[in-house]
Design brief:
20% strand, 436 residues, 6-stranded mixed sheet, FAD/NAD(P)-binding domain, globular, Rossmann fold, 6-stranded parallel sheet
């Protein structure tokens, strides 16, 4: 019997488990270990709460999780409760599917001022991640600056701009829902150091900004390239740029009916965050593109008012003791998913934070092919029997998938009207709910 441990229960972890099931059949035991008592990682804590159709992919993972040869081992922290070295001694293969939950830092003066948040923290706040549920976003000011030109930046802007009615069918957590009710936001500025042809925003997410009840997007027509240049873009990017052109053409009479403006500030790079003990503004340098489409500063600067700054500039995988790491790329050092004998990585932990949720599926299948090549029929390791004995000896309170189902039912039962669930945001409350 082959014994495989997967660290992380997000999309990459479950696609890897699915691949191992299909390749090895009944001759494999798979333990999916997560430090939280609840599964699904990015699906639960990263996908925007108003994108319920995307979150529905968790039902596919649930089917895998309920298989006889797959276990969810929740509330177990690798590095605290069990080491990588110990896992390598118990399993034929250990796969790191930890994702990239840490923010890349914005390395400018003032980035440590109160009122500056990374997107992992801010998104985690409104999605109910236990690590970030207690942060206190600054929502009593009129101006928010969001640094980044990708879909996460769009998510942040959209959540700040939506009415409570628009958020009604989402699973945004109660503390965020209540805080947004009294938010004073009037303007959200999206800073992008390059131009419209270089955005990383997909048409679906971008198009949502044009259908908000109380908010209106603004694009300066002068930032747009000549329309003929759009023909050189990939179809998806062309659709996104077409939407930006539509935003630029919105008449002022229409804007007058909206109380929140979402302003796309292209060719703009933050160089300093200013304020006396808190964020009060962002000093921005105007940029231009060189022949290789890289941005460079022009020396022209201006200041944008800001009571809060959210940086959406990428993520990185946290290092683990004993595992080779590429600090420059924010991921584990690997060759096509192999880190060292019996140790592998998959998803963002392997590639860095690139690709969509679906990108993790072929990634998981590829790493399982490597595992099959390397471990053969297995080496008679103890696997889950050994892990159970070790965790019991250390007094670790393990949460199973059946326990998670009880937690989920409690969240569904606690939901406000119209919402699919009200997430627990404290680990102790999650664990207590399994006995309810």
């Amino acid at each position: 019997m082959r014994q495989i441990a997967i660290i992380g229960s997000g999309p990459a972890g479950y696609y890897t488990a699915e691949a191992a099931q299909k390749l090895f059949g009944a001759d494999v035991a798979i333990d999916i270990i997560d430090r939280l008592p609840v599964p699904y990682g990015l699906i639960r804590f990263g996908v925007a709460p108003d994108h319920q159709s995307i979150k529905a992919v968790s039902r596919r993972y649930e089917k895998v999780a309920l298989s006889d040869n797959v276990r969810f081992v929740g509330n177990v922290s690798v590095g605290e409760h069990v080491s990588i070295e110990e896992l390598l001694g118990l399993y034929d293969a250990v796969v790191l599917a930890t994702g990239a939950p840490h923010d890349r830092t914005l390395d400018i003066d003032g980035a440590d001022l109160p009122g500056v948040f990374g997107s992992a923290a801010f998104v985690g706040w409104y999605n109910g991640h236990p690590d970030f549920a207690g942060i206190d976003p600054v929502l009593d000011g009129t101006d928010v600056v969001v640094v980044g030109n990708g879909n996460v930046a769009l998510d942040v802007a959209r959540i700040l701009a939506k009415t409570l009615d628009e958020l009604g069918e989402s699973d945004i957590v109660r503390h965020a829902y209540d805080a947004l009710e009294t938010a004073a936001t009037e303007r959200v500025t999206l800073l992008g150091r390059r131009g419209p042809h270089q955005i990383a925003m997909t048409p679906k997410e971008l198009g949502e900004l044009g259908r908000l009840e109380r908010a209106c997007p603004r694009v300066d027509p002068a930032d747009l390239p000549e329309e003929e240049a759009d023909a050189l873009l990939e179809p998806g990017m062309r659709k996104s740029v077409t939407l930006l052109r539509e935003f630029a053409a919105i008449p002022e009479s229409h804007r007058a009916d909206k109380c929140i403006e979402i302003d796309f500030d292209f060719f703009a790079s933050p160089v300093r965050i200013v304020g006396d003990g808190k964020v009060e503004g962002v000093v921005v340098e105007r940029t231009e593109l060189d022949a290789d489409m890289r941005s460079r500063g022009t020396g022209e600067t201006y200041t944008i008012p800001a009571s809060m700054v959210v940086t959406c500039i990428g993520y990185q995988t946290p290092p683990i003791d004993g595992v080779p790491y590429e600090h420059g790329r924010g991921r584990f050092a690997n060759e096509d998913g192999r880190i060292m004998p019996h140790l592998y990585c998959v998803g963002w932990a392997k590639r860095g934070p690139t690709g969509t949720i679906g990108t993790n599926r072929p990634d998981g299948y590829a790493v399982v092919d490597l595992i099959a090549e390397d471990i053969g029929e297995g080496q008679g390791r103890k696997g889950r029997v050994g892990l159970d004995a070790l965790l019991e000896a250390r007094g670790v309170d393990v949460v199973s998938f059946r326990d998670w189902q009880k937690i989920e039912q409690a969240e569904i039962g606690n939901a406000r009207e119209g919402s699919p669930r009200e997430k627990f945001v404290v680990i102790e409350d999650m664990i207590a709910a399994r006995g309810a």
